[in-house]
Automatic annotation (TrEMBL):
Residues covered by the Aminoacyl-tRNA synthetase class I anticodon-binding domain: 322-464
UniProt: ATP binding residues: 242
GO cellular component: cytosol
Taxonomy, superkingdom: Bacteria
This protein's name: Glutamate--tRNA ligase
EC category name: ligase
Motif ('KMSKS' region): 239-243
GO biological process per UniProt: glutamyl-tRNA aminoacylation
Function: Catalyzes the attachment of glutamate to tRNA(Glu) in a two-step reaction: glutamate is first activated by ATP to form Glu-AMP and then transferred to the acceptor end of tRNA(Glu).
Naturally occurring in which organism (per UniProt): Roseovarius indicus
Database matches in InterPro entries: aa-tRNA-synth_I_cd-bd (IPR045462), aa-tRNA-synth_I_codon-bd_sub2 (IPR020751), aa-tRNA-synth_I_CS (IPR001412), aa_tRNA-synth_I_cd-bd_sf (IPR008925), Glu-tRNA-ligase_bac/mito (IPR004527), Glu/Gln-tRNA-synth (IPR000924), Glu/Gln-tRNA-synth_Ib_cat-dom (IPR020058), GluQ/Sye (IPR049940)
Amino acid sequence: MSETVVTRFAPSPTGFLHIGGARTALFNWLYARGRGGKFLLRIEDTDRARSTPEATQAILDGLEWLGLDHDGEAVSQAAGADRHAEVARELLDKGEAFKCFSTQEEIEAFREAARAEGRSTLFRSPWRDADPSTHPDAPYVIRIKAPRDGSTVIRDEVQGDVTIRNDQLDDMVLLRSDGTPVYMLAVAVDDHDMGVTHVIRGDDHLNNAARQMMIYQAMGWPLPVYAHIPLIHGPDGKKLSKRHGALGVEEYQRMGYPAAGMRNYLARLGWSHGDDEFFTDAQAQDWFDLNGIGKSPARFDFKKLDNLSGQHIAASDDAALLHELQAYLAVTGEPPLPDAKTALLAAGMYCLKERAKTFPELLEKAEFILADRPIEPDEKAAKNLDDVSRGILAQLTPHLQNATWTREELEAAAMQFAESIDTKFGKLAGPMRAALAGRAATPSVFDMMLVLGREESLARLGDAACEKG
């Protein structure tokens, strides 16, 4: 029986959940969920000065919005400091690490001499093979004994085999002189103790893999599978930064992108499955594999995000979409919708969600539902309500009053009336939109009347007909 796949996402809580981090989390989530495995969350909060509870909460909120559920409780890396130190001491006992008493001044003097002589500045501690009886009673760090000869090969599922000469690896510090563990040690110990089988992370960590592998090998632990994914660049091919626009996941929620559209877009950012662009979560989990990840940096493209978001809004279940719309209003500081408006939105969702790329666009189309009488037309719509148009609306209203309130009947009544005054229905549509919604761009006038109902629709048309310009 094959082992259970265990992946992890391990962000540092020093700010918001970056869009690149969100994609890393998504890749780990998809890989685990598609194989019946576990997706774990570890908060790498060892930098006590920069780690904040607010940043941790922002990460949790971002993952929750994206729908990336993790198994078990989130693990705090700082809470495992005693365990990390224990491994450093175990390596010391096994002869795989050593006490180094070199001071910062001695290390800097070594490097200056090396620079002057044109040789490697990689520090070679004189204490590596020193007899313990010669150890002074002074502060020391614990360093791992890096291999000196040959090379280390990182077998990477995305980058291929990456070879690093061992003479490029230093005897890395594991435990500082104050007894605190370094980040590299903490990561390796946590990944092992959490049973992580696949380390999927940004390729800015590729060199870290060789250093973390030293700890695995010295402890006799089985190595995880590594997959280092390229970073995300802006449309100009430069590393994604503030000048390219939103960086934090919560900003995309506030801009009104649906979570499903964001998941789909992030999955396609650097990974592909044939020519498939639009897909569901189930398909993504079924299809996602490490060999579909490209080696080149992906480019963030708002047009593609908009396109996929629109497709997901159109394909969404109405009730789920309404629920997410209410959550969008909450994060943007808008009041919740009254029950009556919510019911109308639910009834009208079929004609609102087509061709809306974001929730603000959907709400703009829903203005006819959200507005209350008397309807105040905006500047564009007001142009369709001159005295002649108002007169036509006054004549039209009785024809609609007598119609059965179905689309077929309403269309037939409107067409017949247009014919009777020798005009095309298109000439009626503009004034009707202005009367019903106060907007020039709206869903079909018949959809609006069906959603609003007979009484409200006729009242709005009547208001516009009475209002002389």
